[in-house]
Amino acid sequence: MRPALGQAVTLAGPARGLSSTASYLENMAACRVVCLSAESAEILAALGEAGRICGITGFAPRIPDLAGKPRVSGFSSAKLERILALEPDLVLAYSDVQADIAATLARAGCNVLVTTQHTVAQILDTILLLGRIVQAEEKAAKLVEGLRAGLDRIRALGESLPARPRVWFEEWMDPLISGAGWVQDLIEIAGGQILFPGIRFAWRAADRVVDAAEVARRNPELILASWCGRRASLNAIRTRPGWEGTAAVRSGQIHEVRSHLILAPGTTALREGLETIHALVGSAARRADPEVG
Questions:
Q1: Which residues pair with 171 in a beta bridge?
Q2: Contact predicate 119/206, CB 8 Å
Q3: Which residues contact 90 (CB under 8 A, 6 or more apart)?
């Protein structure tokens, strides 16, 4: 059964209802897809289905498969008239931040799918879901298999590190926001300890706001910063009041992870993002181990 025009489907964590949702949408055979977030564009490109994409976000990766595609949205804003002019069969959006855009497009007659993947497992499920929607199930399964192998390889390397450094991941500086769920997953896979395990599954950024004094009290041995949409100021972090006594500041273990590598819950985060984090965690682990160096 083909979904009615103007159908909006929100997948609240792809791990739930994946099979039924995909079964409902897979007959769409979408040939003209607008991707309002970077990860949906990179996932379709990784599946070899970039030819179906007719519009992308300005934050989409600048790769050959997406070259020349009209850029029709930011993250929390979109050029609605341009999107409608593309006559998409399906619009892919992400999270509550794009909920109002999705609702407006649905009211205008677009089929819209909003995913809210927030963990590594849910990212993998989202790949399988999108693979079914564009009738590329075998390619999606193969992609997920390869990603799982990469995750397992890094996990094994992480487990062999001489220590598991405490890692503070900073997604924003004012207010101070801890990294999203998939980022925390990747830190653990890479061999680190997350600093605030109690909020790792909080999917709204507002629920991941923490007090700077509490970060200092927990004494991170590695600080990673990825300020969404702008370059992180490592000096501002280094000179933050009360942080001068933390192990990370004293040892100089403060690093930026470029946001395009880690803040979109898609394939890049599970590959380049994880590799980057593992390298930094490994360096901090070797510094933390008194038997090394």
A1: none
A2: no
A3: 28, 30, 32, 33, 34, 110, 111, 112, 113, 133
Pair of tokens at residue 65: 């498969």
Tell me the pLDDT tens digit for each residue of 177-212: 999 999 999 999 999 999 999 999 998 999 999 999
C-alpha to C-alpha distances, 244 to 17, 107, 131, 194, 249, nearest whole angstrom = 47, 52, 48, 20, 6
Closest residue by Cα to residue 193 from 163, 165, 162: 165
Give the integer Cα–Cα distance in Å for 166 and 56: 37
Tokens of 99: 């909920």
Report the pLDDT value the prediction gives residue 20, as an integer from 0 to 100. Answer: 46
Between CA 120 and CA 184 the distance in angstroms is: 9
Low-confidence stretches of the chain (pLDDT < 70) are 1-29, 289-293
